[in-house]
């Protein structure tokens, strides 16, 4: 008994197959699909109808080869332990979709961007890259510059090749200090991160400088390791201090660490804000939950991402444009974690 072979898979529709169906040259199909008015409306409608009927999808690789532009942008993210980077990913994806761009996650997590990562940007023919975390080595920056791959640092300051779009971290840190001083707090703790990033350094500098201008100083600094667990451990450590040594105000350099601090303090029966006021930085959606109700500086993330894409797009059209350095003011959101005025 002979076996019945399955029917052959239908051939994927291409510009060539559409041209055969329409009885025109492939170049005519290409122009019609782009809406070129040199092709009659009747023929454009016929070709668009055939494309829909046969499930035609443009070949992104062919488009890249013909135009030299892929519409693909690299994205470098920080650790998933910090929800800020997930919010950044969501916002970048949303805006990229509206612009007709595609995102490729090149690197995620802490640590430097190695040369091999920079080479991946070239191999995948990305039109540009947004870097929201990690350190860009001078060699990696050189690789991108030599291949005309524009870079925009978001929430970071570019020390080499590339533009940057960031929140004014120093001003935000100073604003938190002024708020705490206005709340009559006089003993200050800082939950920092050992990372060498410009973000954490500037937030601390702004906070400490404002304290010094008021004749005040930090009483304790604890490394919160840029995550919830580090903040929680810092909160417990502070709760175990003798009362005369315990700060009455804590500034954590990120919301995720501040939320950990709040849970560590409350588990030790420390009242917030009566005993200790707590503030963070970033403006995470989760910081507004009733269990935290955290005072914070909200970064203008949608606008930062919008400007990043604008800078990248401009430099894909004209690589000779100079680097731009953009700092945006964050918004102070006062909640119950720092008490009433």
TrEMBL record:
Keyword Transcription: yes
Any GO MF annotation of the entry: DNA binding
Listed Gene3D superfamilies: 3.40.50.2300, lambda repressor-like DNA-binding domains (1.10.260.40)
InterPro entries (alphabetical): HTH_LacI, LacI/GalR-like_sensor, Lambda_DNA-bd_dom_sf, Peripla_BP_I
PROSITE patterns: HTH_LACI_2 (PS50932)
Keywords, sorted A to Z: DNA-binding, Transcription, Transcription regulation
One family name in Pfam for this protein: Peripla_BP_3
Ranges where the HTH lacI-type domain occurs: 13-67
CDD domains per the UniProt record, alphabetical: HTH_LacI (cd01392), PBP1_LacI-like (cd06278)
Protein name (database record): LacI family DNA-binding transcriptional regulator
Lineage: Bacteria, Pseudomonadati, Pseudomonadota, Alphaproteobacteria, Hyphomicrobiales
């Amino acid at each position: 008994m002979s076996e019945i072979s399955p029917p052959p898979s239908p051939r994927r529709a291409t510009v060539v197959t559409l041209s055969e169906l329409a009885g025109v040259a492939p170049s005519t199909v290409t122009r019609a699909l782009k809406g070129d008015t040199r092709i009659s409306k009747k023929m454009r409608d016929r070709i668009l109808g055939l494309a829909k009927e046969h499930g035609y999808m443009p070949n992104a690789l062919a488009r890249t080869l013909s135009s030299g532009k892929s519409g693909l942008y690299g994205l470098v993210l920080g650790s998933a332990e910090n929800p800020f980077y997930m919010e950044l990913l969501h916002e970048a994806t949303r805006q990229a979709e509206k612009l007709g761009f595609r995102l490729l996650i090149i690197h995620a997590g802490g640590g430097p961007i190695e040369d091999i990562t920079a080479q991946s940007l070239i191999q995948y023919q990305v039109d540009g890259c947004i870097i929201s975390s990690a350190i860009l080595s001078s060699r990696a920056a050189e690789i991108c510059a030599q291949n005309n791959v524009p870079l925009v640092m978001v929430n970071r300051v570019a020390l080499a090749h590339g533009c940057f779009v960031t929140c004014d971290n120093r001003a935000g840190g100073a604003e938190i200090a002024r708020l705490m001083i206005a709340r009559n707090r006089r003993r200050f703790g800082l939950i920092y991160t050992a990372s060498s990033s410009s973000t954490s350094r500037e937030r601390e500098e702004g906070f400490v400088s404002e304290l010094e201008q008021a004749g005040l100083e930090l009483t304790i600094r604890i490394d919160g390791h840029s995550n919830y667990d580090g903040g929680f451990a810092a909160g417990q450590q502070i709760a175990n201090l003798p009362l005369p040594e315990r700060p009455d105000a804590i500034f954590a350099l990120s919301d995720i660490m501040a939320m950990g601090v709040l849970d560590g303090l409350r588990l030790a029966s420390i009242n917030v804000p009566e005993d200790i006021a707590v503030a963070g930085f970033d403006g995470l959606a989760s910081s507004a939950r009733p269990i935290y109700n955290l005072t914070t500086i909200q970064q203008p993330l949608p606008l930062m991402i919008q400007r990043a894409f604008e800078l990248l797009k401009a430099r894909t059209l004209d690589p000779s444009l100079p680097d731009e350095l953009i700092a945006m003011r964050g918004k102070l959101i006062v909640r119950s974690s720092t008490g009433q005025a």
